[in-house]
User: What shape does this take?
Amino acid sequence: MNEYINEFIEYLRGVKNYSEHTATAYETDIREFIKFFENFNGGEIGLSDIARADTICFRAYLADRGRHGLAHKSTARALSSLRGFYKYLAKHHSIKNDAIGLISSPKVPRKLSKAIEPSDVANMKEAIFATESDEPWVAARDWALITLIFGCGLRISEALGLKNNDVNGRPEILRIVGKGNKERIIPVLPAVYDAIEKYTSVRPFGNSATDELFRSVRGLPMTPRMAEKVVEHIRNYLQLPDYVTPHALRHTFATALLSGGADLRTLQELLGHASLSTTQLYTKVNMAEISNIYMHAHPRALEENDKDE
Assistant: This one.
């Protein structure tokens, strides 16, 4: 089965343009299923066995994941990876399996992200330059990255995918290639470019037009994990809640726009969401904030609370 799995993963990378992180997740999910299926089947399996896998096998696989304490979200993703693999085999190797389509994904509750307090975002700059005083260019880089994610609502991968020639000359818009190789246009605030230019003016390497904008201390392109560690470091220094992550910066961008009157369709375009239902989660967050303000500040709410007492 190795050759078919490798072929599928290369297809995801080369044809579907999936990120390395996503392709690796697919590969892990599929290999874990193959390992389970071989134990379930009593020996090594081939394409013909894959084609014959039935609902009993798939349900046993889901039950096995449950026994090992794997979360519903993880299992839903694994099932999605498996469906993608079967779809590929059907198209490229004439392997058809109807049973996989009869298996429902576990219900995954959609958690509402939390926005970061504006005062905490402002304090991040001071924290960065205080903790990176020995490496001023690193401090400038970290603040530029945070400003970019917060100011444009980018995913980490999108921010780290930018090259110097994408921002040279301070274009009014950035063309961002997001998930599924979909392009969207993002307007850029002057403050974002100010932070980027302060960083690039002191950066010791990576100044070629086609170089990645954000570089590690060793001169290599920054990885998503490096960016996450930057925010973790700031969070720990300022003793902020655990939900303060790079994604929370993106979420704060979205919540601020919605609070300022942006409509859902516009927000969907700016965030690069494939489905409007994903964007609609922000309305729930916004209503929660409005309700909280109402209950603590609105005169009528205070009167009602007095009556209850």
Remarks:
- The radius of gyration is 24 Å.
- The chain has two domains: 2-102, 118-292.
- The domain at 118-292 is CATH 1.10.443.10 (hpI Integrase; Chain A).
